[in-house]
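Ticket 4471: requesting a sanity check on a complex prediction with adenosine-5'-triphosphate. Repro inputs:
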Amino acid sequence: MTGMEGRGIYAGYGKIEVLHGASVRAGQGEIVCIIGPNGSGKSTLLKAMFGLIKPKRGTVLFDGQDITHLAPEEKVRLGIAFVPQGRNVFTSLTVRENLEMGGTPLDSKKAVRQAIAEVLETYPLLKDKIPYKAGNLSGGEKQILALARADMVKPRVILMDEPSIGLAPRMIEEVYEKIKAINTNRGVAFLIVEQNARKALSAAHRGYVLDLGVTRIEDTGEGLLNNEEVKKLYLGG
Ligand SMILES: Nc1ncnc2c1ncn2[C@@H]1O[C@H](COP(=O)(O)OP(=O)(O)OP(=O)(O)O)[C@@H](O)[C@H]1O
Ligand SMILES: [Mg+2]
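Returned structure tokens:
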């Protein structure tokens, strides 16, 4: 199978186990969304898949290859990017410097310049902002910058944690339009964690409900949107 998969992941912090056998998969070209209540382990699952925390049991696969124990930077080199929760940009650096940071794995300054030029075509709203400190961007612009920074290395899979949290509806729309465009145009797979379940599920091909550290329900985005239990518990009735 091409794409990324977590199989029976057990992980946590110190003695506390948060994930008790969670399984998710984003095939190449798929947008997959993970929804679930606060504290159910959604961020922990993405961190375990990216290698920021070590799974105690279970397997992380990329194109069918076992990558469970690779470090994050090795996963980046394989084509996996991670956009953490909270519009994670370097606020005291300029937009250009933030993009350069994303380009660190590239092998020359020329390649970085080239990647910045391409990224600015994909995310044109960053063009005018390039010399300014990222701290001055709006919330939505920061989220776009975080995505653009991850996109500097042209990943095949992007793991995104709560891209729409705290954003105005118009910016949520903008972020999801970008995600869908990158997915359609380049076949990039997305594994997205969201509290804004309705928006995420309507953009997703498939989705999972993570509850108490276990993936409980799996269906198409549409199937989950129409699932009575999901509606009642996660979509506000
Ligand atoms: N660094 C950490 N050290 C110890 N416990 C942690 C740490 N990060 C998260 N936890 C705990 O792990 C559990 C799952 O947290 P996690 O952040 O994965 O949940 P989540 O589903 O992403 O929640 P939210 O929707 O609020 O973002 C919570 O009980 C949390 O308190
Ligand atoms: Mg979280």
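Notes from triage: The two ends are 36 Å apart (CA to CA). Leaving this open until the requester confirms.
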